[in-house]
Amino acid sequence: MGYIKFDKAHVVNLEYSLSREILRTNRAGSYSSTTIVGCNTRKYHGWLVCPVDELGGDRYVLLSSLDTTVVSNGQSFNTGIRKYHGDYYSPKGHKYVEDFDVQDIPGMTYRVGNVFMKQERILVHYEEQLLIRFTILDTDEPVKLQMRPFLAFRNIHQLTHANMWANTRVEPVSNGIRIRMYDGFPWLNMQVSSKSEFVPVPDWYQGVEYTEEQKRGYDYSEDLFVPGFFEVTAGKGDVIVFSASTKEERPAGFKTKFTRTVSSKIPRSDFGNSLRNAAQQFIEKRGGDTNIIAGYPWFGSWGRDTFISLPGLALARTSEDLFAAVLDTQVRRMKGGLFPNMGDNDNPAFNSVDAPLWFFHAVCSYAQEPKEAWKRYGAAMKDVLNAYRNGTSFGIHMRENGLIYADAPGKALTWMDAVVNGIPVTPRNGYAVEINALWYNALCYSLECARAAHDRAFVRDWEKLPQQISISFIETFWDEELGFLADYVNDNEKRNMQVRPNMVIAASLPYTMLSKDQMKSILDIVNRILVTPRGLRTLSPSDESYSGIYSGDQEKRDRAYHQGTVWPWLVGPFCDGWLRVYGEGGVSRVRKLIMGFEETLTEAGISTISEIFDGDPPHTPRGAISQAWSVGEVLRIFTRLEKEFKENK
User: Fold this and answer.
1) Where are the extended beta strands (E) located within 170-282?
2) How do the residues of the chain divide into helix, strand and coil, expressed in percent and rounded to 5?
3) Which terminus of the chain has a lower count of CB atoms within 10 Å, N or C?
């Protein structure tokens, strides 16, 4: 019995199984994602989704799914499943499911008549290739397998429809065919490991529906093209591997390649290994760059998310090489003291006031020796500090009191960045509490590194500023009567004293201007009001602006995004602060909070952690099914507990 298992009664219940999704990624930037029964419920689902450099580097769904029909004793059993209009599912292959397991890779066992067949899927590490292995576990007589590919050839954010421009011709390759439906796309090579026959039956399957897109207020119906089917004969014990790849390969090597790829995977045998396995899925290496993908299935690489998640994600590999590769990639993209918050290399967006400051925190986590950190990243650190002191884009600048002020009309520059109709939902322009805590931390760490490296000029230039920042910070943000920090302060209004989690960051950073009593007061209030079993709410439930359910169309969801919605990544700063204040006496609280995420591994994205959860109980998982900083911060604290407080288990 594996660590993560689903019983048959649950799997065949579509209400249960269609809300649980599988995600697998590889280093080449490809991913494979669907529900646990193989029914796509999102436009982002696809069994082979690849980045296409010729089309701007975005991800494209090539192979949407693969239906497999077992022909035995003159009867045909199709194990596929798709939804059409009117809650009509066809075929209904889920009813043949006997067992489902995800410990090593997704594996589904089907029983059709007297035939037992196991189907397993895996992505090859550094190639745009999906391998599907079929094992005939038991049968009375030879059976025929008919494998029918459903093709999309479209961007993950769009849908496709039957059209006269699609090139539906196929060309033969070894044990299979290849097809390229539109110019600019790579060829999709579909091959079978053993002798097979391809039967051309070209047809468009129209009106395939995606329920999750319908719920989110988007278009949700598309047409998929099927060029025909592959047919192969198999008997008891036979293994057949189907390959979908952007390159033609020698079919005889598919079985070995499948086995070799599986052997390198971290098994999801416990909570820690599940987190480590999930953590590795965000790493992408392409074109000499190493990126952290912020979340699946629709995010790209984001600067802020990269720096926050990297310390935790790197623990999955216990390798400093990953840290250095990601940081070096980001440094190459710097401009005007800012890191790109999102967008590709050709069209980056630098609209983040906190990403450059989280960079210092990431460097601090990576570099054990301050002298070495300054040698490698000192120039980039100076660029950021000088840009903030002198002023840079989006009105980001240091004022005479030493604090950072940022104000760009219509822009949301902090991590609470939802904008509706050109207006920020949580306008935090001015002095933001976590920005100035990060600013102080960045400068103090830089001075430590510069002193270790004997950079006297830098020290002389900056050494008096931390004391000024410290005094100004307390004067500006601390409310003695309420016992916590303002969320932001600007020139046009009084302190904003909404109870939000941003002040926790000030209590968690290595360098802080807060006293222990102040930190304790902040953390106790946050623990009582914002902490949930799934992370921290973004706003107190007693606030009139609180929104406890994240659902509906994009505008409705954006209005709830930072107005009460729970974010798992915030448990990292909270737990760091809690352990700092309470020491070993706080371990049980932290352990309970972190281990509570074990329940989520079977709730939405299987063996990973979602982007967000509802603020209201039962804290339903929402947003992206697998988020880098959710996994990274939970893994980081989990590992810290193992290393520092193991005896308290």
Assistant:
1) 171-173, 176-179, 188-192, 197-209, 221-234, 239-245
2) 35, 30, 35
3) N
Task: Report the alpha-carbon angle 104-643-534, nearest 5.
Answer: 65
Peptide bond preceding 541: is omega within 30 degrees of 0, i.e. cis?
A: no
pLDDT of residue 344: 59
Q: Which residues of the chain have a pLDDT value below 50?
A: 648-649
Most distant pair of Cα atoms in the chain: their distance: 86
Residue 586 pLDDT: 95
Distance CA 638, CA 345 (A): 34
Q: Which secondary structure element, helix H or strand E, spans residue 256, and what is its range? A: helix 254-263
Q: What local confidence, expressed as pLDDT, does residue 536 receive?
A: 98
Which single residue is written with the structure tokens 């120039």? Answer: 379
Which residue is it, tokens 């001075």? 447
The reported pLDDT for the residue numbered 288 is: 86
Could you tell me the two tokens for 550? 């994240």
Distance of alpha carbon 354 from alpha carbon 395, whole angstroms: 13
Residue 648 burial (CB count, 10 A): 11
SS (H, E, C) 379-407: HHHHHHHHHHHHCCHHHCEECCCCCEEEC
Beta bridge partners of 22: 34
Q: How far apart are CA 185 and CA 58, in angstroms?
A: 12
> Who's near 434: CB < 8 A, 6+ residues apart?
354, 414, 502, 503, 505, 506
Long-range contacts of the stretch 518-522 (C-beta < 8 A, 24+)? 518/478, 519/577, 519/580, 519/581, 520/581, 521/483, 521/484, 522/483, 522/484, 522/485, 522/577
Cβ neighbours around 550 below 10 Å, total? 25
Roughly how many angstroms between the first and final C-alpha of the chain, as a whole number? 25
Q: Rounded distance, CA 436 to CA 538, Å?
A: 19
DSSP at 174: T
Check if the beta carbon of residue 497 is closer than 8 Å to that of residue 479. Answer: yes
Look up residue 454 and give its amino acid: H
Sheet containing 612-613: which strands, arranged edge to edge?
531-532, 535-537, 566-567, 612-613, 621-622
Q: Which CATH number fits domain 11-251: 3.40.50, 2.60.120, 1.10.287, 2.70.98?
A: 2.70.98
Give the pLDDT score at 28: 87
Residue 156 tokens, joined: 């993950």
**What is the spatial distance between Cα 307 and Cα 316, in angstroms, rounded to a whole number?**
16
Hey, what are 117's tokens?
């067949």
Q: Which residues contact 104 (CB under 8 A, 6 or more apart)?
A: 262, 265, 267, 268
DSSP 588: H
d(CA 621, CA 206) in angstroms, rounded, equals 31
Contacts of 66 (CB under 8 A, 6+ apart): 47, 80, 132, 147, 148, 149, 150, 242, 244
Q: Are 55 and 138 in contact (CB under 8 A)?
A: no
